[in-house]
Amino acid sequence: MSLIETLRDENQSGPAFIRHIGAGNIILAVLLILYPAVASDFFLTQIGGYTLIFGMIALSLMLLAGYGGMVSLAQITVVGVAGYSVAIFGENSSDVMGFGWPWWIYVPVAVLFAATASALIGLIAVRTEGIYTIMITLAVATAAFYFAQQNYTLFNGFPGYAGLRAPEVFGVNWRDPLPFYYLCLGTASLCYAAVLYGAQSTFGLTLQATRDNQRRMRAIGYNTTAHKVFAWFLSGAIAGLAGVLLVWFQGRISPGTIGVGAAVNVLIIAVIGGLRHPIGPFLGAILVVMMQTFAIDIVGAERFNTLIGLVFLGVVLLSPDGMLGLWEKAKPYLKQNSLRPDP
Amino acid sequence: MRITKRNLLALTLSTALTLPGIALAQDGAIKIGLLATFEGAFTVLGEDGERGAMTAVNEFGGEVAGHEIEIIRGSSDASPDSAVRAARKLVEQDGVKVLVGPLSGDEGIAVKDYAKTQPDVTFINGSSAAQDTTFRDPADNFFRFSTDGAQWMAGLGTYVYNEKGYQSVATVAEDYSFPYTQVFGFMAEFCNAGGTVPSKSWVPIGNKDYSSVIAAIPDDVDAIYVALGGADAVNFLSQYQQAGGEAPLIGGSITVDQTVLTSEGRLRDILIGTPAAGPTADTNDSEAWLSFVEEYKKTDGAFPSPSLFAHGYYIGMKAALLALEETGGDLSDPTAYREALANLEFETPTGKVSLDENRNAIADIYLTEVVEGPDGNLVNKLIQTTPQVNQTLGIDKEEFRALGAVSRENPSCP
How many whole angstroms separate alpha carbon A77 and alpha carbon A84? Predict the structure, then answer.
């Protein structure tokens, strides 16, 4: 069973540079860079930034699920590790912890912690397969949530940490709408490119081969466990970066951020978007963030979650591969269009 | 190009998503944000809060000083993060200049912090009742007309010590800022009267199994003070009864409300006679209260008696509208509007309300006891009214501040 198609189109043309990056990616990048020209501050951060952050979190899941065949519900826990690290090592206004380290120390530390935590979760999870991986990561996520909620010395319990601020570097306050959007865009692009590149590297191909037939890979001498755990480590680094951005965005972190609802949310984003290509999680994040923000305006306060659920159901019903699948279905249809007689 | 049914459906879905971006604003309408918990564990409470707010809007006929009132709703799930996110959407996208909410303790503290970054917007509390929303490090543009959880306990500690004769009490409460505030309010009076609290148990919201908590309650306490809400209260009380516990109970403000009192089973035997205190009382027979209940009951899905969430949102929304009336529906100058709010003094269904210099309410608090009503239902009978309780519970402000911020450990009198 292969979830991922080979990514190269046969009929590519144009200069080598464009062929290498892909015309679609370049158009996308230009559009995203120009987006602030038309967007209000709200659409820049609350929609744009938030979408990119959750896209990154779902991307970390896509990496595991799409290339590694391991569906994890603990990605939000990894995000939480990074987020709480920022609160504990950086500055906060909750009078608990808050070592006040500068950002260029606490950010790498937070990401490293997140990646390590992810690798540890992976170490446990790779012993299982399929639905059991989902179960064990769900258990980890739930345990982490309750621990953070009830531990006051390290996690400050239910209220969590407030007063977390993005740093001012080069005279720019990175939480201002425009810089923050570009910060998110830059980080997300980096992760996106890294995943695209990684998927075609030796490691990526080995991982995909392991997903398709682990026994055969082991038989020809690959240490499949090590490859899988390293995939968890990489995915943890992406989720960790997203976690740092998320707490800068919210200015606070509490157990509600890493609850079971949030964990399922990440899975929904990835599935809605599609697990076949790294762009899927970002597409899914756009849909989910837009729905969660605006559904209440369409149907009112009592039934808006029903509408959200119905739309998600609709997407999955129309296309089991999520929004990416819709495009895949439309593509051959559009190509044949020229062959059809005009009505 | 031919269009299949399936493509059409996909198109409809994607259009539906972009539609809300085109927000429709009526000319001259005043937009007021309403932030409550419409999802998660406190959904029922949030919906009742909305009913309270709408009762106030209906009272004004849906308009103030000739301007129509447009209510825009925002939903949180009782976590501080979601409350701030919903508030941001209302303020930054919908452009409301007045926001009424939120519902729960830590949400209030988070929204207060957010309020500091939005000096043009005026925030009026819904029913959140943590002390530090207004007491420590307050925001100039955050107003609370609904009193805090410590104020709600006024009279209770003294009453159970003097009248009930309880010398030592164990507490069981949820583990966040609102129950801390409630326990603080109870203990401030109880310990002052001479009582002791040898054991305090803090449980997470939504806890199902209380066996370890029940085992940890000392045998020799005279009573148990319970500050749990909704399903948590029902779970604890029934498990306590099944475990053979016989100590009498003392209730927090949301422990023995109608959601708990209407639950079936033998629970009612141990509930009868439970004293509690709060901003409302079921058997309040003042005319203002009765007419409020009548108006409240006209809203969809109303309870037989408004909960304190409906009450809190009603007062907050009414204050917002009264101040708007004073400025002639003009919100262009936030300072003038806030001045009107700060100087507001009005009669509510539960007596006179005014604000102190921290923009926190001074209001009447009711001491109640659970009794069996004439039709067999359990109701909270009004025992006494503590008039005009302020945030420092009558203690000198500096002295009160020296007691420290409420927390798991503070106060303590073992």
Answer: 10
CB contact set of B39 (below 8 Å; sequence gap of 6+)? A305, B75, B76, B77
Query: B151-283+365-402, which class in CATH?
Result: alpha beta
pLDDT at B170: 93
Choose among A40, A46, A252: nearest Cβ to B80. A252
Q: Is B361 on the interface with A (CB under 8 A)?
A: no
What local confidence, expressed as pLDDT, does residue B190 receive? 92
Name the residue in chain B with its Cα closest to that of A259: B79
Which chain B residues in 312-351 lie under 8 Å from chain A, judged by CB atoms? none
Closest-CA residue of A relative to B78 is A256
Query: Does domain B27-147+286-363 fall into CATH 3.40.1350.10?
Result: no
Chain B residues in contact with A340 (beta carbon < 8 A): 2
- Specify whether the CB–CB gap between B288 and B318 falls below 8 A: no
In residues, how long is chain A? Answer: 343
Indicate if the pLDDT at residue B1 is higher than 70.
no
Tell me the CATH number at A45: 1.10.3470
Residue A88, SS3?
helix
pLDDT tens, position by position, B148-169: 889 999 999 999 999 999 999 9
> What per-residue confidence (pLDDT) applies to A45?
85
ipTM: 0.79
**What's the CA gap between B15 and A289, in Å, rounded?**
15
Question: Is the Cβ pair A294, B176 closer than 8 Å?
Answer: no
The total domain count for chain A is 1
Structural domain includes residue A15: no
Tokens of B77: 């799930």
CA distances for B312 relative to A229, A286, B57, B340, angstroms: 52, 36, 14, 19
Query: B20, A298: Cβ pair inside 8 Å?
Result: yes
- Per the rule left: phi > 0, alpha: psi between -120 and 50, beta: everything else, B393 is left
Residue B5 sits at the chain A interface (C-beta within 8 Å): no
Collect all residues of chain B within an 8 Å Cβ-Cβ radius of residue A250: 81, 84-85
A310, closest residue in chain B (CA to CA)? B13
Q: Worst-scoring range by mean pLDDT, A157-161, A197-201, B34-38, B239-243?
A: A157-161
CB contact under 8 A, A159 and B204: no
* Sequence-distant (≥ 6) Cβ neighbours of residue B16 within 8 angstroms: A298, A311
Scanning B371-410 for CB atoms below 8 A from A yields 408
Residue with tokens 């659970």: B370
A132: its two tokens: 């059991």
Q: Estimate the crossing angle of helix A304-318 against helix B5-18, to 10 degrees.
A: 140
Token duo for residue A81: 């590790």
Report residue B55's pLDDT band, with 50, 70 and 90 as the boundaries.
Answer: very high
Contact B99, B122 (CB under 8 A): yes
